[in-house]
Amino acid sequence: MSPSAGRRFRAYTSKHLDELTARAGLGEDERLAVRAVATVLPFRVNSYVIDELIDWDAAPDDPIYRLVFPQADMLPAEDVARMADLLRQDAPRKEINAAANEVRARLNPHPAGQMDLNVPKVDGQDPLEGMQHKYRETVLFFPKQGQTCHAYCTYCFRWAQFVGEPDLKFASGEVDHLVRYLKENPQVTSVLFTGGDPMIMGEGVISKYIEPLLEVDTLESIRIGTKALAYWPQRFVTDPDADDTLRLFEKVEASGKNLAFMAHFSHPNELEPELVQEAVKRIRSTGAVIRTQAPLIRTINDDPKVWERMWRTQLRMGMVPYYMFVERDTGPQDYFAVPLARAYEIFRDAYKNVSGLARTVRGPSMSATPGKVCVDGVTEIAGEKVFMLHFIQARDPELVGKPFFAKYDEKAAWLFDLEPALGATHFPYEEAPPADVSALVDPARA
C-alpha cells in the first residue's frame, strides 16, 4: 500500500504556490502569473495528490499537475497582468479582492440558471437555501459542511463555491427542509448530495443528512457526488471513520434504497494507486454502485486513448462508466473547452474500442439551462451538415429522448453557440420553456 496511506491529511493553498510551482520548473515571472490567477480562481491541493499522483519530472505538462494547478493563461492576459501588478505592489487584501471580484463577475459564476431557475421555494416565495430542483425526479442538496474539496480541479464549474464570497455560495444545514420538500413532492425519487464534496464530511456529520432520508418512502436512490476516491482514497480505507462510513453505506442499502456513488475521475492516472483500488473494493462491498463521470478537458484528457483506458480500467475495477461531460460555460471555459465536433470524435473513437459493458457511458453531454443535451453525431441531411442531438434529461420532461438538429459548426463549444438546422427557426426547448422550478412540482399539488 502507498506510503501516504496512513498519513494525516495536509492541504496546500495559494500561500504554497510559489514553492510548488518552482518545483515544477516555472520561472519567477511565470510563478507570479500563476499566483495572479489564483487570486481569482480557487487553489487547493493535498499531500496525496502531491506525493502520489503528480509526476514532477513531467510537470508542468503532467496531466494531474494541470488538473489541480492554475495555469498562467487561464484568464485574459489583461486580467492576469492587473492582478500580478497588485501582487507585485503588495497591495492591500481588500483591493486585491475587489479586483478579483470584478474578474469573477465576468466568468458566469452560476451557469444554467442555478440561482434563478433551479432553487425551490416555500409557498412559491421563500427560497429553500442549499437546494436545487432542475429535473422532475431529482433534487440536489448542498450540505454546508461539504462545500469544500480535498483538492480543487482547475476546470470546476462550481469554482464559485470556493472563493469565499457568500453571495456566490450554495449551502444548507437544514435537512428537515429537504425531508419536508421530498414528502410534499413525491415525484422526486432521487437526491444528489453535492458540493464541494460531501465526502469531505466525517461520518458523524454526513449521517445526520443521510439517515433522515431513509424514512422517506417515495425516495428510491441517494447519490453522492465526490472526487474523494481520486483525491483522498484514505477516506474509505485508513481514515479514523472509514469503517463507520462504510457501515452508513450499508445502512442505506439495507433500507431498500439504492446508494449511487458518483465518482469523478478525470484521468486514468488517478486510478493507478493501490489505495484507490482498495477503496473501490471496500465501497462496492457495502452494496453501493460506483458510477464514474468527468468532463472532457483540453490539455488534460482530450485524447480518445485516455478515455478508452479510463473506461476499461473502471470496468475492471467494478465501476460503471456513466458520463463524459462537455466543459460548462463558466470560469475559464475558453481555456479548457473542446469544440463539440472534436468532443464527439473523441467520444466515438474511445467508445468503439470498449466492450458493451463499458458502453453504459453517455456523452458528450452538455448540462445546459434547458437540460442535459447529448451530441449523438454529425451527419448530412438533405445536403446540410448537422449535429444530431437529444435530451438525456430536461427541465421540460416532454423533451427527454426527442432528437433535434443544429447546423454544423466546427468552432461551437456549447449549446448556445449552435443554430437550428433544416429550416427550423428555433430549437424545441425554445418553444415553451418552464419559467422556473415551480413547473416541476407534483402536478397533483399544483
Automatic annotation (TrEMBL):
Cofactor requirements of the protein: pyridoxal 5'-phosphate
The keyword Cell division is assigned to this record: no
Tagged with keyword tRNA processing: no
Radical SAM core domain ranges (all copies): 133-357
Keywords in alphabetical order: 4Fe-4S, Iron, Iron-sulfur, Metal-binding, Pyridoxal phosphate, S-adenosyl-L-methionine
Protein name: Lysine 2,3-aminomutase
Lineage: Bacteria, Bacillati, Actinomycetota, Actinomycetes, Streptosporangiales
